[in-house]
Amino acid sequence: MPPFAASLIPSVPPAVHPPRKSLNPPSLGQLPRPSLEAESISRRDAAIFFSCIIGPVLPSFVQPPPASAFSFGISGPKEWLKEQKKKSSKFLLAPVDASLNFLRSAYLLLTEREAEFSKNDLEEVQKLLVSAARDCVPQDRNSFVVFQSKTGVEVCTFQLILKNASSLLDDKDPIKLKAEAKLSDLIQSFTSLSGLTREGGVPLTTVRQRVVVALKDTITSLNNFEQGIKNCLEV
Questions:
Q1: Count of other CB atoms within 10 angstroms of residue 221
Q2: For the segment 54-77, what is each residue's pLDDT rounded down to a tens digit?
Q3: Is a pLDDT exceeding 90 seen at residue 5?
Q4: How far apart are CA 162 and CA 172, in angstroms?
Q5: Structural contact between residues 190 and 132, judged by C-beta atoms closer than 8 angstroms
């Protein structure tokens, strides 16, 4: 072929073949490193897997123990309330002490004026007994207290004292049941005593003698009730 003819024939580029894949796997050093994003995703997946699979199996290692309500040497709210009731026991029993003073004053009036005991003295004794009963005798309540009791309000002071002192005890607790029995005896004693002072058609001397005996029993019942309250409070 003449030289000028060769220049007219376009040149064909040589064929490019893709590199042949090696049959041997690349070594660890030749593996491409994952990107930071892929690495963070894989760590997140691992964390999710651990929390879903391992967490329920070992809850004591994953979850902290529940905090105690009181961590200063007190076992709980109930014990704390019990200690507070003990500290306020004198205030709670103050009405009982006042009632005892009323009963003692009535007893002195009945015994020291034995020869000169009059109807006016009996009326004074009645007032002292009403004050000592603390609205626990229905027939001795005034109109306002009667209205309160009809609306469902507890008006008997001794009953309120018992409810406060035994609020942390079970209903069937022997200590509470004994205190309730002592309260029942006390209210019955006050009721009988009030009836004796208002008994008509009986000589004044006889009334005085009967009231003195019943008054002693009422003082005893009140002392027993006070001890029942102290037992509830553990004082």
A1: 20
A2: 444 444 333 444 443 443 444 578
A3: no
A4: 14
A5: yes
